[in-house]
# Entry
Amino acid sequence: MLPDSIRQLPKAELHVHLEGAIQPATVCTLTARHRVTTAESEVRRRYNYTDFVGFLDAFKWVTSFLRDSADYALITHNLCEELLRHRVVYAEVTLSVGVMLLRNQSPERNFAAILRAAEDFESRGLTLRWIFDAVRQFGPDAAMRVVQSAKNCASSRIVAFGIGGDELSIPTKDFLPVYAAASAAGLHRLIHAGEIGGPERIREAVEILRVERVGHGIAAIQDPSLMDLLADCRIPLEICPISNVRTGALARQLDRNRVTLQDHPLPQLLRHGIPIVLSTDDPAMFHTDLSGEYAAAEQMGLSESELRQLAAASFAHAFDFSSARSL
Ligand SMILES: [Zn+2]
# Structure
């Protein structure tokens, strides 16, 4: 059982996708807005996967009901309520701008609505910052348009550029010009790597793209020299244990049919000295929340002081926490 002293600690959440945080009831509200009747039971059925492709299909389905800026405002509001319930005071939320552009939406208009929705929560002690995320399999040109959208939005609340999606699809080096443009625009550099891909994906992201944190990165456990590199260079892994179990990513990394939380490499990575930020990834789609992730870490055998260390690391590796605190 997670001690109350840990549950009550203020925390930062650094790897959470806005579109993966849409609770089933809210999905039904969205579909109804767009004249599609969906039962909550159907959403719950779709929120169950046996592999990573199944998860990506569900992500595509749910985001197909994000059709205008009011939809984005609604899901931002609901995410903020959820974060506050779990003592999150600061979050860097990933926004799939690549998907907005694919659907010919205006990221500028959607983001303005998102900012307005999030603003209401500042007075309640929750500060949000944003990560504009491209979809890897859409390619470097589409990713460059995501960077351009961030520039168009011209908001100090956008702190980073990242890439998610199918990490096996396109070579890492093809994105180098995109990351150079993101850096020139003043954005921090992130990527999902070593989730379903091997440790070489993480190494490339660090050595070629100079990323400052790695989304997931659980494949690092297969490569001791990479673990040393991450520890020595103080490059955090954004670890999302329940996501890794539910997408099949952990089973794939360990080459097993079945895995449990006890098989997760979080304790070894942490005790190797790699900075770890514990996160939820897509909380609604993985039936989790930040308290649940801390409980999972406790089940893996982390001590109370290690759990406190994780909560402190979530602030230490945030990109804009100190300026947010001075607001
Ligand atoms: Zn993610």
